[in-house]
Structure formats: structure tokens, C-alpha cells
From TrEMBL:
Statement: the UniProt record of this protein carries the keyword DNA damage: no
CC terms in the record's Gene Ontology section: cytosol
Classification via InterPro entries: A-D-PHexomutase_a/b/a-I, A-D-PHexomutase_a/b/a-I/II/III, A-D-PHexomutase_a/b/a-II, A-D-PHexomutase_a/b/a-III, Phosphoglucosamine_mutase
Protein name according to UniProt: Phosphoglucosamine mutase
Organism: Limimonas halophila
Boundaries of every Alpha-D-phosphohexomutase alpha/beta/alpha domain copy: 4-135, 174-255, 260-365
Family: Belongs to the phosphohexose mutase family.
């Protein structure tokens, strides 16, 4: 049987299995029964984004949690980071964000965090799923032992305080014209208010949710909307936040988009200068550009690479005792402030750095030259990577690159493909080298085709 959990949590079409009202009630009960050791005095934090189905799923979770004796704190529409942080600071046992991320409104999902505000691991997901399959989750709670449901009076208070704490003394956003794209999502209420309170002149974009327009032509998946707005309003900078509040992108005053790795460098420099790093290193994904790695090294910081798959980034952040992690898809975590990826945090750091530097965004946001990169997915059994012939061609390509580039060859998330990424200072060599490597894989497997990157496989 296929798992209901994906790397993002539970994700699917709203009001279809497993995201029906009745299914989510049972899922909530199973989560308490199989994740919380001490069932006395259990508190669960629940937040959501602005999707039409969010209210239904929020109430279904609340009903399930209450039925097994938990106290439920409803935050309403807030960023995922606010849910994770409130879970941690309020000593709750569990937190749940109801969101479909950067998908359209018909898709929704459930992302669980533990008492520390960190995404739950695969073993915990498996325990919940096993409880669902066994039907052993009702716990025999009497009517006198039912939990309670409370609407939090200040759902983003802790989150707002954590974000404000990032700003150095004396640094504000006075006089800065910022185009803010809230994706009609989870951050579109708090983000404009926060930026204005810090002195920014805010031009709102994607900040009028109606339940059906989240991520529709706005947000991190539609950067051209922000780019056009920045130039049209002659803004100093533009920022976009993902539908669930996790991702961020930034556009300079010319309308040019900062690459996620470039924004990573800006945040890393800020974190280093203001004591937000627990060690002189940061965590990035395996696709992080070698230009970023060189820039970090030149600035006294190491780069610890991990898989781009969502669970690996936060896990590596905590196990490596680093203070900062980022992905090439625009996720940024400063763990001592917000324990999950938070787009508003990333945007605020970029704006604070801009205020400190007193220079155009186009000067700040492009701190190094991106090295040309090429990525393909080859239809092949990953076992081909264990063949001597494959190892030989990989070694030859790696030797040809030397210190001027980087090679990554690994199984793709789709089991029937091998992922190949090559970077080289001489962009003209990239195509030739990747053709050489792909030909070697084809020869080893007797296959004769490769296909371009599929975002769904990343």
C-alpha cells in the first residue's frame, strides 16, 4: 500500500482521500495515540493557509485531537514558521500546518512538527500510518476527558517577536520602497504589517486572499509578476513569499531575480556578522552552485551538502549543529529564530542587509558569479552506478573537471532514473562533458535516451 506521506507531509486533493474530513479526524487521533508518550495535558497547535478547504481540515484536526483528550490551539491563517515556533515556545506536544504549499487552491496538505517545532521524521510518519491501518487510535476517552479548542488571541506574537529580533540595533527599513508579493497565502496578513512597522513603504501584491486565488499568477512560482511590479513602481526591492510561508525570492531594483544561492550568500553574511551561526558553516543541498561554495569559503564559511529532498535539509541542519540551511528552491532556515524554512524571515534578512549596506539591491543581491550548470535525468536503473564501466566514465569526467567544476551523479527520486549535474567555469565544456557521461551510462545500460530535468523529480 502506498504511504499517505510524501516528503512534504500529507498532500493531495482536498475532500478526497486521505484529505477528507472523516479521514483527517482519524489521522489526528492516530497522531496523538502513536506520537505522544504522555497523553495527560497534551496541547496541539494548528495553523493553516488561506485555501478554501483549510477551514474544513483545520476543524477536522481539532475534532480528532479533542476526541483523544488534547487541548487544541487554533492559530488561523499564519505562516508555517509561526506554527512551528508557537509549538516550540508554548511547550506543545505537536503542531500541524494545513497547507498545500505552492500548489493551486484545490490541493491541500498536512505538515506535522514535533515538540521542538521540527518536521517529524519518517519513523514517526510510519507510526501514525500504522495506527491508522490498525484502527487503534481512539484511546477510549470518556466524555469527561475530552480536550478543548481555543482560538489563539495573538497567533503570531511569538513569530513576530522572533523576526524583529533579527534586526540589529538601529537598523530599520525607513524610506525603502518594497513590493511585497504574499501569494494570497499564509503570510499576506502579517508580512505587510511587519514591514510597514519597520518603516518600509510597502506596495502590496497578492495580499487579497479569497480562498481560491492562492498562488494563482503570484508568489514564488510566478516571479515575473513581482519583477514587473518592481520596475513599474520604481521600487528599491521586491520580495515574494510562498503560499505556506516557507519559500522566498527577492528581486532587485532593475527587476532581476536573485538566484536562491545568491540570497543564501546574503543571508549567510548577515548571520555571520550578527552572531546567528553556531559554527562557521552552513547547510546547503547537493545542487548548490559551486560559485556559492567558493564564495562561502572566501568568507570563512564551509558548506555542508545534503539531499535536496525536503526532510534532509532540516535534519542535516540539526545533526550538524549549524545555524543556517538553505535549498536551491528558496527554503531558508535560521534555526535559533524559526525552526523551519521561513520565507518572511529570509526576506526580512535581505531587507535588513540592504538597509545596512546602503547600496542598490542590484549591488547587494548578486555577490558572486553563478557557475554554468547542466542537469539531466537519464532513464536507467540506479544499479548502473555500481558498474565498473560507469565508475570509470565518472572518474574520467571528474578528472577532466578538476578544480574548475563539480560533478554529481546520483539516483533520482524516481527510482528508474539517474540524476546528473555538472558545473564548470567554462560553460562551453559542460554540454560536452555531460554528453560524455550520459553516453557512458547509456552504454552501460544499453539505453539510448535521456530527458531534461523534471521539477517533479527534484
Amino acid at each position: 500500500m502506498n504511504s499517505i506521506f510524501s516528503p512534504e507531509g500529507v498532500r493531495g486533493t482536498a475532500n478526497r482521500d486521505p484529505l477528507t474530513a472523516s479521514g483527517v479526524v482519524k489521522l489526528a487521533m492516530a497522531a496523538i495515540a502513536h506520537m505522544v508518550r504522555d497523553h495527560d495535558g497534551v496541547t496541539v497547535v494548528v495553523g493553516r493557509d488561506t485555501r478554501l478547504s483549510g477551514g474544513m481540515l483545520e476543524q477536522a484536526l481539532a475534532a480528532g485531537f479533542m476526541a483523544v483528550g488534547a487541548r487544541v490551539k487554533l492559530l488561523g491563517p499564519v505562516p508555517y514558521g509561526a506554527v512551528a515556533l508557537e509549538t516550540r515556545v508554548s511547550c506543545a506536544s505537536l503542531g500541524v500546518m494545513v497547507s498545500g504549499g505552492d500548489e493551486m487552491y484545490s490541493i491541500n496538505g498536512l505538515a506535522f512538527v514535533n515538540a521542538e517545532g521540527r518536521p517529524i521524521r519518517a519513523a514517526e510518519q510510519a507510526a501514525i500510518e500504522a495506527g491508522l491501518a490498525d484502527g487503534d487510535h481512539e484511546m477510549g476517552i470518556s466524555s469527561a476527558e475530552l480536550g478543548s479548542i481555543d482560538v489563539h488571541p495573538a497567533p503570531t506574537a511569538a513569530y513576530d517577536a522572533a523576526l524583529r529580533a533579527l534586526l540589529p540595533p538601529g537598523i530599520g527599513l525607513d524610506g525603502m520602497r518594497v513590493v511585497l508579493d504574499g501569494a494570497h497565502g499564509a503570510a499576506c496578513a502579517i508580512a505587510p504589517t511587519l514591514l510597514r512597522s519597520l518603516g518600509a513603504e510597502v506596495v502590496e501584491l497578492g495580499c487579497q486572499p479569497n480562498g481560491r486565488n492562492i498562488n494563482r499568477g503570484v508568489g514564488v512560482e510566478a516571479p515575473w509578476t513581482l519583477q514587473d511590479a518592481v520596475t513599474a513602481h520604481r521600487a528599491d526591492v521586491g520580495v515574494a513569499i510562498g503560499g505556506d510561508g516557507q519559500r522566498a525570492l527577492v528581486v532587485d531594483e532593475t527587476g532581476e531575480l536573485a538566484e536562491p544561492d545568491e540570497l543564501f550568500a546574503v543571508i549567510a553574511a548577515f548571520a555571520r556578522d550578527h552572531g546567528h551561526l553556531t559554527r562557521p558553516a552552513a547547510v546547503g543541498c547537493d545542487k548548490a552552485n559551486i560559485g556559492l561554495e567558493r564564495w562561502l569559503q572566501a568568507n570563512g564559511l564551509g558548506l555542508i551538502r545534503t539531499s535536496a529532498e525536503p526532510p534532509h535539509l532540516p535534519h542535516t541542519l540539526w545533526t550538524s549543529d549549524c545555524g543556517l540551511a538553505a535549498s536551491t528552491s528558496g527554503h531558508y532556515i535560521l534555526r535559533d529564530h524559526v525552526p523551519v524554512a521561513d520565507g518572511l524571515m529570509a526576506a526580512l534578512v535581505a531587507l535588513a542587509r540592504l538597509a545596512e549596506a546602503r547600496c542598490p539591491a542590484s549591488t547587494l543581491l548578486h555577490p558572486f558569479e553563478m557557475v554554468p550548470q547542466h542537469e539531466v535525468y537519464v532513464p536507467a536503473d540506479p544499479a548502473v552506478l555500481e558498474l565498473d564501466a560507469t565508475r570509470g566514465v565518472i572518474a574520467r569526467v571528474r578528472a577532466a573537471l578538476g578544480a574548475s567544476g563539480r560533478l554529481l551523479v546520483a539516483p533520482a527520486l524516481a527510482n528508474s532514473h539517474v540524476r546528473v549535474v555538472i558545473e564548470a567555469d567554462d560553460g562551453g565544456r559542460v554540454d560536452a562533458l555531460i554528453s560524455q557521461l550520459v553516453a557512458g551510462l547509456r552504454s552501460a545500460m544499453g539505453r539510448d535516451r535521456a530527458k531534461p530535468p523534471n521539477p517533479a523529480l527534484r
